[in-house]
C-alpha cells in the first residue's frame, strides 16, 4: 500500500484556542508567511518577484504559504490584463489591514541587541520601515516628495503632515531621488554611514539638495536597545 503525501492546509496543526491572537497564529504563524505578506504590502507581485525578494525560501514552500494565505482570505491571485497577462498575488483589503502589526513588531524587534541590520534587506522591507520609523515630531512642518530606485523597483514617498505614505511606481518632479541597494539606503538612514562614502563606492546615488537629504535621513531615529535584562 502506497503512503499518500498530504499537503492539504487543513492538515496543519492548529492551536485549538479561542484567543484571537492564537487564531492569528493559525493564519500567519507558519515560517515565511509574514514575510510573504510584507513583500505584498506595497502592491501585487509575481511569484518570481516574491521568491527573489525572499532569500532562502524554496519554490515549494512559497507555493504552500501562498496557498495557505489565500485559503485564509489574506491574499488573492489574479491575472493582469494585456499586455502584462501574468498572474500576480495581492493582499485583500483585510490583508492590508495587518500593516500596524508589522509596524509594532518592527519597533519592538529593533530594540533587540541581537538584531543584525547587515543581513539581506528587501526593497519592500525598507519602504515599510520608513513608514514605521518616521518620527512625526521631527517631520512636523516638512513636506517633500522622495523617489526611490532599488534595482528594477521604483517607489514614491510623499512626506507631509508628519506621515510618509509610499506607493509603488514611477515618479516625477521628486525633491530627492535615492538610487541603490536597499541595504545601502538603510545603512545611510539607520546606520549613520557616510553618504559621500556610499556614493564613492557606487552603492548609493543621490539626486537633489544634499542638505535636504541629510534632514530627511534624520527623521528616522531607532529606539534604544533593550538591556541584558530587557530594560
Model description:
With 231 residues, the protein is of the alpha+beta class. It has 2 domains: 9-97, Arc Repressor Mutant, subunit A, CATH 1.10.10; 118-217, Nonspecific Lipid-transfer Protein, Chain A, CATH 3.30.1050.10. The protein is built from 11 helices and 7 strands. It has helices spanning 20-28, 33-40, 47-52, 59-71, 93-96, 99-109, 123-133, 136-139, 182-189, 195-200, 210-217; strands at residues 75-79, 87-91, 144-150, 153-159, 166-168, 176-180, 204-208. The strands form 2 sheets. It has a 5-stranded mixed beta sheet. It has a two-stranded antiparallel sheet with strand order 1-2. Strand 1 (75-79) and strand 2 (87-91) form a beta hairpin. It is globular, with a radius of gyration of 20 Å. The relative contact order is 0.10.
The percent range for strand residues is: 15-25%
User: How is the largest sheet built, in terms of strand order?
Assistant: 5-4-3-6-7
Mean pLDDT: 91
Give the helix proportion (percent range).
25-40%
What is the CATH-assigned architecture of the largest domain? Answer: 2-Layer Sandwich
Structural class: alpha+beta
CATH topology of the largest domain: Nonspecific Lipid-transfer Protein, Chain A
The structural domain count equals 2
Number of helices: 11
- Please give the number of β-strands: 7
Radius of gyration: 20 Å
- For CATH, the homologous superfamily of the largest domain is named as SCP2 sterol-binding domain
Supply the CATH class of the largest domain: Alpha Beta
Query: So what's the oligomer here?
Result: single chain
Amino acid at each position: 500500500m502506497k503512503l499518500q503525501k498530504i499537503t492539504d492546509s487543513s492538515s496543519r496543526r492548529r492551536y485549538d484556542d479561542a484567543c484571537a491572537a492564537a487564531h492569528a497564529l493559525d493564519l500567519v504563524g507558519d515560517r515565511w508567511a509574514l514575510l510573504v505578506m510584507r513583500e505584498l504590502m506595497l502592491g501585487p507581485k509575481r511569484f518570481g518577484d516574491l521568491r527573489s525578494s525572499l532569500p532562502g525560501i524554496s519554490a515549494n514552500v512559497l507555493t504552500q504559504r501562498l496557498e495557505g494565505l489565500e485559503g485564509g482570505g489574506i491574499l488573492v491571485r489574479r491575472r493582469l490584463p494585456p499586455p502584462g497577462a501574468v498572474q500576480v498575488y495581492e493582499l485583500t483589503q483585510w490583508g492590508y489591514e495587518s500593516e500596524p502589526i508589522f509596524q509594532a513588531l518592527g519597533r519592538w524587534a529593533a530594540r533587540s541587541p541581537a538584531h543584525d541590520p547587515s543581513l539581506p534587506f528587501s526593497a519592500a522591507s525598507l519602504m515599510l520601515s520608513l513608514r514605521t520609523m518616521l518620527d512625526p515630531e521631527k517631520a512636523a512642518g516638512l513636506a517633500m516628495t522622495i523617489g526611490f530606485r532599488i534595482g528594477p523597483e521604483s517607489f514614491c514617498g510623499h512626506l507631509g503632515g508628519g506621515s510618509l505614505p509610499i506607493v509603488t511606481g514611477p515618479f516625477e518632479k521628486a525633491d530627492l531621488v535615492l538610487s541603490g541597494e536597499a541595504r545601502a539606503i538603510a545603512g545611510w538612514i539607520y546606520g549613520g554611514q557616510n553618504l559621500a562614502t556610499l556614493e564613492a563606492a557606487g552603492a548609493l546615488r543621490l539626486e537633489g539638495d544634499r542638505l535636504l537629504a541629510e534632514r530627511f535621513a534624520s527623521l528616522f531615529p531607532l529606539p534604544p536597545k533593550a538591556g541584558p535584562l530587557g530594560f
